[in-house]
Amino acid sequence: MFDFRGRGKGLALAAMLFGISAAAQAGEGRLLYASLGDTTRAPIGWVEFCADNAAQCQGAPLQPRDIVMSQAAWRDLVKVNRWVNETVKPLTDQEHWGVIEKWSLPSDGYGDCEDYVLLKRKMLMDAGWPRQALLITVVRDKKGEGHAVLTVKTDKGEFILDNQNENVLAWTETGYRFVKRQSQSDSNVWVSLGDTKPAVSTASAKD
């Protein structure tokens, strides 16, 4: 299920990557990274997921580490994002499990936004990406509803993998309000995120 090689033909890679990073060259570096706040409560879905999947929730503190965003790294992000979005079929936790909230790896091919995020994170970690740069993030979408995405922290800014968009976007381009995410040093510690006024979202409508 996790073999995504050979997918993603015809992707716009370098142009998109360096276009997104142009903000830094224009002196707008403040937009590259979300503002971190105080420690906050971890989502109950994450806590329960970790109780059943300890290997995915390493608690030992690590030094924060960002990805060096090369063209190869960008290709991997786009491939993983699109492959998971195309492979996993959307299904609410109520329909799937009969409960309001349950985070799980979508081993049966169905899941909601948190499950897409968990699979993308796992695939990248299995490929050798540091988990300190792969941060599960809670946002409010354009409708004000709770949503989960994966923030990838890089030397060129923070990029978002989202089941509602086949493209990988800079965090300021999503149209979301960022609420909280995992700490880089400890995946079981969550930090609040400063309120922002991001650009208009280009995300397509998809569960």
Describe this structure in words.
This protein is of the alpha+beta class. The chain has a single domain, classed as C8orf32 fold (Roll). Helix content is 27%, strand content 23%. The protein has helices at residues 14-20, 22-25, 44-52, 71-87, 93-97, 113-126, and strands at 36-40, 89-90, 110-111, 134-140, 146-154, 157-162, 165-170, 177-182, 190-193. The strands form two sheets. Strands 1-9-8-4-5-6-7 form a seven-stranded antiparallel beta sheet. A two-stranded parallel ribbon has the order 2-3. Helix 4 (71-87) packs across helix 6 (113-126). The model is unreliable at 1-16, 19-30 and 197-207 (pLDDT under 50). Residues 1-26 form the signal peptide. InterPro entries: Transglutaminase-like_Cys_pept.
